[in-house]
Specification:
Shape of chain A: globular
Helix content of chain A: 25-40%
Strand order of the largest sheet of chain A: 8-10-7-11-9-12-13
CATH class of the domain at 1-58 and 196-376 in chain A: Alpha Beta
CATH architecture of chain B: 3-Layer(aba) Sandwich
CATH topology of chain B: Rossmann fold
Number of helices of chain B: 4
Number of strands of chain B: 11
Distance between the termini of chain B: 11 Å
Distance between the termini of chain A: 59 Å
Mean pLDDT of chain B: 96
CATH superfamily of chain B: Class I glutamine amidotransferase (GATase) domain
Largest sheet of chain B: 9 strands, mixed
Number of strands of chain A: 28
Radius of gyration of chain B: 15 Å
Order of helices and strands of chain B: EHEEHEHEEEEEEEH
Oligomer: heterodimer
Strand content of chain B: 25-35%
CATH topology of the domain at 1-58 and 196-376 in chain A: Phosphoribosyl-aminoimidazole Synthetase, Chain A, domain 2
Helix content of chain B: 10-25%
């Protein structure tokens, strides 16, 4: 051990993000003061990002059991059974803080990280989706973040051969300083290839695979991801990791080959907190100890300290436990794929994580102290007495329904996302049956002709209005998108993006939103298979909108009958279906008019919404209807316009009602088209009203008509200027 | 008909090409480090990001051991199909004239484009008729075709008016060697073979090849 005179003290601990009380607890657990490498490891594993110390208690409310669940929270990714002996592993994760500092690399490595989580469990990544939030596009900073983040996502996903099949993006003032970059990945594996990360078998060898280890990203989890952003962001750039998708492609192919050949005992990716986190997690899950010899870690530069090697967040690295007799075969495969493979330590029975350098002990910590003993904090939630968020700026003065519809279609939150998604390869791997803007969910064909549907959703402004009901709506929206594709939900992953939980009003948002997610998941019988929490998303102006993002995976029996959103056949009847009670308050129209956020949203009859979703799903699966599209932002008129644009055909709508009926928002509504008889049959199962007929070249609603070509032009032109 | 699809480190569409070729024949993967074409009748150099696109697209892959065999195979008249990154590799290897430059828009672009068949006499387009239109997706950042200095090139496919996604000179989407047995295109015919996932027009490229007598 280094001599005690050089030991860091409480001041160093605080500089690394620990509280004085946490430092005292570490001293207590060790029975002595930690040295530099030990303190560095504690500071990361006890950070918010790694320990979930402000959210873990709340997350216990989420249901984690379901009929299709194969692997729940706690592994690198959760997994559900999708039939035919196949499992789908999936997870969503945030990379908000790095992206706010350096958007290209932040977003790129966000994709890289979630891909590793999925192939770490033995699944081949088959799709990526992303959920993005920026400030208003009128801001130069927002346009810069958008442009570079989209380029970064494309750079990584395109280069590695995994299609980006869906996603969402919204622009709201409160994300101006702190953008959100959430990436979700799905992978496929035969059941028997699903791999856990628990280390096992004292004497087994720890093999580090992939890239060499450098000084990049040191302290990323504690410095960047667990504190608010401030003016000095530029100085944090060295804490952002640099991604190399080519390296990851080789690492991915190599790991999948090693798992196919049954050469690994367990596998774990290196993400936040690098080797420290990976080794500690693997040891903790296996109830064993691990020795790591930092002298055996391939380095990018000479002279790196032990603590730097242990906490480096260099990308594209994986840690495997291998039986001694299999090590040579593993290293040969690494050489064939042209990646580094280095035995760097071994599994022990000690229950300690020991850091060695050429055999000499430089740090020795009980695994349980690192992983399990971080204090968990109770929040002190308090509903704010005054509005937290200012009203959005007024950008719409139009009065007539025609002008209002066109303004909504051109608005940043509703306009076509094509300028973004055309920068992503949506088709590699030859599974993509429904691409963006063809259906409400992406659809991927499975061997045997069935398919997966997947969607990612979350509306921060609605959650800001009412954290409980807003979170319920996010789950319902995602399930509605699956229903329109014909899919039944199998499992859900979530990413909770919130501000500083030590503030009572943010604590209230977080507690209420998690309660809403839990209730909605229970009501739909959808388990949460895993997820991620990102806190401290604040700038000098205050917190972001509370943004729970929900990713849901579903299954449909026949890919050929996957739903479409566009009207398909002239002469089809058009129905507004579902328990739909729209309101202008909290809607996109209210935003464009600069109206303040309401203090709550309407109560939701979740059981009725679920019944409607099931009816829509069955009708789509049976091939009885021609199109299905859920009514979301912009309300019924926008949903009708999107269905016209999607199908390249007009519609004549007879609609009784006012502005609220046209543009109001609420969960539970669907625009369906099909033979009148099929819709009449559906009316037995759900509220349903025939509102018109497909045909012609214009959308006619009551007193006005707009050619579909004009609808398409304003809708397509909304975001295009942001990507000149 | 036995197809061989080359797999470089960083190839992404090799399995897609193998699946597409399997619709008309047998298809195997060829490892970049092996000087062995396994007796195939046609070689496909697939899309993706071989060697990470580092240095310059296709510039490193052309030095892979398997490429020595591919060059020899092409010189002997064997059919070689280069798709996207494969097209770039074949240009770098000197098997096709011209070069691929960064898109005029400087961004990656993934979309369906319409193509017009100009030359239906190659082994890759013999199932087509001159003037046929085909819808096939593109997805690339470096697909702007630049003619060789003498302008002497056998153009096989052009982007239909209004469909040029990258600023290629003369709307060139695909070219062939003078003898016609080496063919490179930026669009991905292997992603247009199944009605479930979109157009099936790309199948014509594979069907054309399958009509070539084995050993020709």
């Amino acid at each position: 051990m280094p001599d005690t005179a050089a030991l860091p003290g409480v001041q160093e601990a605080v500089a690394l993000g620990l509280t004085p009380a946490e430092y005292e607890l570490i001293v207590d657990k060790l029975g002595r003061a930690p040295n530099q490498v030990e303190l560095a490891m504690f500071s990361l594993l006890w950070s918010e990002h790694c320990a979930y110390k402000h959210s873990r208690k709340l997350l216990r409310q989420l249901p984690t059991e379901g009929p299709y669940l194969l692997m729940g929270p706690g592994e690198n990714a959760g997994a559900v059974d999708v039939g035919g002996g196949l499992a789908c592993a999936f997870k969503v994760e945030s990379h908000n803080h790095p992206s706010a500092v350096e958007p290209f690399q932040g977003a790129a490595t966000g994709v890289g990280g979630i891909l590793r989580d999925v192939f770490a469990v033995g699944a081949r990544p088959i799709a990526v989706l992303d959920s993005l939030r920026f400030g208003e596009p009128s801001s130069g900073r927002s346009r810069y973040l958008l442009d570079r983040a989209v380029a970064g996502i494309g750079h990584y996903g395109n280069s590695i051969g995994v299609p980006t099949v869906g996603g969402e993006v919204y622009f709201e003032g409160p994300y101006e300083q702190n953008c959100l970059i959430n990436a979700m990945c799905l992978g496929l594996a035969p059941h028997e290839r699903l791999t856990r990360s628990a280390a096992a078998g004292p004497g087994n060898v720890l093999v580090l695979m992939g890239a060499s280890t450098g000084r990049d990203g040191i302290g990323g989890a504690s410095v960047l991801a667990s504190a608010e952003l401030d003016e000095a962001d530029e100085s944090k750039r060295p804490s952002v990791q640099i991604g190399d998708p080519f390296e990851e492609k080789k690492v991915m192919e190599c790991c999948l080959e090693l798992l196919d050949r049954d050469l690994l005992v367990s596998l774990q990716d290196l993400g936040a907190a690098g080797l420290t986190s990976s080794a500690a997690e693997m040891a903790s899950k296996g109830g064993v100890g691990i020795d790591v010899d930092v002298a055996r870690v391939p380095l990018r530069e000479a002279g790196m300290e032990a603590f730097e090697i242990m906490v480096s967040e260099s990308q594209e690295r994986m840690l495997a436990v291998v039986e001694p007799a299999r090590v040579d075969e593993v290293l040969e495969a690494c050489a064939r794929w042209e990646i580094l493979g280095a035995p760097i330590g071994e599994v022990t029975a000690s229950g300690h994580l020991r850091v060695l350098r050429d055999g000499a002990v430089e740090g020795d910590v009980p695994v349980a102290a690192l992983v399990d003993d971080c204090p968990l904090y109770d929040l002190e939630p308090a509903r704010p007495s005054a509005p937290i968020y200012p009203p959005p700026p007024r950008t719409l003065d139009a009065t007539g329904p025609r002008e209002t519809l066109l303004a909504l279609l051109a608005s940043p939150n509703l306009a076509s996302r094509r300028p973004l998604f055309e920068q992503y390869d949506a088709i590699v791997q030859s599974r993509t049956v429904r691409r963006p803007e063809q259906a409400d969910a992406a659809v991927l064909v499975l061997p045997g002709g069935g398919a997966l549907a997947v969607s990612i959703d979350g509306n921060g402004r609605r959650v800001a209005c009412d954290p409980y009901r807003g979170a319920v709506e996010a789950v319902l929206e995602c399930a509605a998108n699956l229903a329109c594709a014909g899919a039944e939900p199998l499992g859900l992953t979530n990413c909770l993006n919130f501000g500083n939980p030590e503030r009572p009003h943010v604590a209230w948002q977080l507690s209420e939103a998690i309660r809403g997610l839990a209730d909605a998941c229970r009501a739909l019988d959808v388990p949460v298979v895993g997820g991620n929490v990102s806190l401290y998303n604040e700038g000098a102006e205050g917190p972001i909108y509370p943004t729970p993002v929900v990713g849901m995976v579903g299954r449909l029996p026949d890919a050929a009958r996957a739903g479409r959103l566009g009207f398909a056949r002239a002469g089809d009847a058009i129905a507004l279906a579902g328990p739909f009670a729209p309101r202008i308050a909290g809607s996109e129209l209210a935003k464009l008019r600069g109206e303040p956020l309401p203090h709550e949203l309407d109560d939701i009859d979740v059981a009725a919404v679920r019944a409607a979703q099931e009816a829509v799903r069955e009708a789509v699966r049976a091939g009885e209807i021609s199109s299905a599209h859920d009514v979301a932002e912009g309300g019924l008129a926008v949903a009708l316009a999107e269905a016209c644009i999607g199908g390249g055909v007009g519609a004549r709508i007879e609609l009784k009602g006012d502005e609220t009926r046209l543009f109001g928002e609420a969960p539970g509504g669907f625009v369906l088209s099909g033979p009148a008889g099929a819709l009449a049959a559906l009316a037995e199962r759900m509220p349903l009203e025939i509102v018109g007929e497909v045909g012609g070249e214009a959308l006619e609603i009551g007193g006005f008509a707009v050619p579909v070509a004009d609808l398409r032009a304003v809708w397509a032109g909304g975001l295009a200027p942001l990507f000149p | 008909m036995k197809f061989g699809v080359v797999r470089f480190p960083g190839s992404c569409d090799e399995v897609d090409a193998q699946l597409a070729a399997s619709r008309v024949g047998e298809a195997v993967l060829l490892w970049h480090g092996d000087r062995d074409l396994q007796g195939v009748d046609a070689v496909i150099v697939p899309g993706g990001f071989s060697y990470g696109d580092y240095l310059r697209v296709g510039a490193i892959a052309r030095f892979a051991p398997v490429m020595e065999e591919v060059v020899e195979f092409a010189r002997a008249g064997g059919p070689v199909l280069g798709i996207c990154n494969g097209f770039q590799v074949l240009c770098e290897a000197g098997l096709l004239p011209g070069a691929l430059l960064p898109n005029a828009g400087l961004r990656f672009v993934c979309r369906d484009v319409d193509l017009v068949v100009e030359d239906a006499a190659t082994p890759f387009t013999r199932a087509c008729t001159p003037g046929d239109r085909m819808t096939i997706p593109v997805k690339h950042t470096t697909g702007r075709y630049h003619l060789p200095p003498d302008g002497d090139v056998r153009v096989v496919l052009r982007y239909a008016p209004g469909h040029n996604p990258n600023g290629s000179e003369g709307d060139v989407a695909a070219v062939a060697s003078a003898a016609g047995n080496v063919f490179g295109l930026m669009p991905h015919p292997e992603h247009a073979v199944d009605p479930l996932t979109g157009s099936t027009d790309g199948l014509k490229v594979f069907e054309s090849l399958a009509r070539v007598p084995a050993g020709a």
